[in-house]
Give the backbone structure.
Amino acid sequence: MAHLDQWTIGTNPKELSSSRARIFAATANRELTLAANEILSNGVEHSGEHQHVALSGDNQSFTVTISGGGIRRGIRTRPPEESGRGLQLADALVDGLVIESGGEALVTKLVVYQ
């Protein structure tokens, strides 16, 4: 699988649009772009930490790996009644969703097959 792109997203929600644009430009896959946006949004909202994004792909699949953004309790940018569906939506949009805890950081892999 070839490495296509990588970057770090900060804690400002305005940075999400550039990540969406980079993922879509590399993959032309709307579902993967939306799923990755949900995971990145969760990290921005719940962790207050930077997240590293790595994008890879070949003629069979694309993978977005997001690391960082572990949950830090008490940080919330939206009311509780407006949250709670991001992971469900991401899971429904991609062919594979794997979330692993690496100590303080989460590692999330999103996979779509072409």
